[in-house]
Write a structure and sequence with these properties.
Layout (H helix, E strand, L loop, with lengths): L2 H10 E3 L6 E3 L3 E2 L8 H13 L4 E3 L8 H9 L8 E6 L6 H15 L6 E4 L7 H13 L6 E4 L3 H11 L4 E7 L11 H7 L3 E5 L13 H13 L3 H9 L5 E4 L5 H8 L8 H10 L13
Parallel strand pairs: 3-4, 4-5, 5-6, 6-7, 7-8, 8-9, 9-10
Antiparallel strand pairs: 1-2
Length: about 290
């Protein structure tokens, strides 16, 4: 197998932190999916699984459970083909509350286990209690791995002190071309401790560079040279390293198909440099961005 083929394979499926699990570089986010047309959304979820975008991410907070319910319907007969993730909100993240929240998510999702369970953002409940509940759920076979979301490097260091090395599977954070500040400290911390970085809202929550903007024109030019769309180029950049993952939301089958076209795309040094120049990292932030 040549280097290009190996790189393309790694861009499709890659090791997920220290879990030993293999997960697609690009998955499917579901935030605010309760606002979309249900039939089309179910079709989009099915298309995502068929095309290999089988890391499906949701949360109890999304639509106050409505999105988990929708996914339970959409994934009927497809559950074993999916790496399914959900999240507990901090106000539910006591030891007993985490156990209850997970059971409720499992019921709505019509499954007996989650592949990944996350604390949605840092809260007031002691991490020791939340993580103890995660470990109990894992021992009971109700989750395969667990992690965190929206944690900055200081939060991650505190979490690592509680959990120990090799327990925190991932940190899910906002990451798109015009918001790359996590690259200063969060990504290096995660890399040093074998914690996968999962980027949500990789198209900027509706703020994707306009076609007439300098950034939009750069994406279009790079895409035209490769027979790719601007969004495919953006996704390929955001998962350019083997510990980076992206979960773009797609509530229409055609959007799913477009996202899937980025699987296996490996950008060359000149292409990466062009995107680095057009979408610079910017200054280091305090904390992590959430919008």
């Amino acid at each position: 197998m040549g280097e290009t083929t190996q790189a393309a394979g790694a861009a499709r499926q890659r090791s997920f932190g220290a879990t030993g699990l293999c997960v697609p570089a690009i998955g499917l986010g579901t935030w605010a999916m309760e606002r979309d047309e249900p039939a089309r959304t179910r079709e989009a979820v099915a298309r995502a699984v068929e095309l290999g975008l089988c890391h499906v991410d949701t949360a109890e907070m999304y639509g106050d459970g409505a999105v988990e319910t929708l996914l339970g319907e959409a994934l009927a007969g497809r559950r074993d083909a999916v790496f399914l993730a959900s999240k507990v909100v901090p106000e539910h993240a006591s030891y007993a509350g985490t156990l209850r929240a997970c059971e409720a998510s499992l019921r709505r999702l019509r499954t007996d286990r989650l592949d990944l369970y996350l604390l949605h953002w840092p809260g007031v409940e002691p991490l020791a209690d939340t993580f103890r509940a995660f470990e109990r759920l894992q021992a009971d076979g109700k989750i395969r791995a667990w992690g965190v979301s929206n944690f900055c490097e200081r939060d991650l260091a505190a979490a690592l002190d509680v959990a120990g090395e090799g327990r925190i599977a991932c940190n899910q954070v906002l990451y798109h071309l015009e918001e790359r500040s996590i690259e200063h400290a969060v990504v290096p911390f995660c890399r040093a401790h074998r914690i996968a970085v999962v980027g949500y809202s990789p198209f900027g929550s509706g703020a994707f560079p306009a076609a007439t903007s300098p950034g939009g024109r750069a994406l279009a030019a790079l895409g035209a040279a490769r027979g790719l769309t601007p969004r495919q180029i953006a996704l390929a950049f955001l998962v350019r390293e083997p510990d980076l993952f992206a979960i773009p939301k797609a509530a229409r089958p055609e959007h799913v198909s477009d996202n899937a076209g980025a699987l296996g795309v490996v950008l060359g040094p000149d292409e990466l440099a062009a995107l680095e120049a057009r979408f610079p990292r910017g200054p280091r932030r305090r904390g992590v961005p959430t919008a």
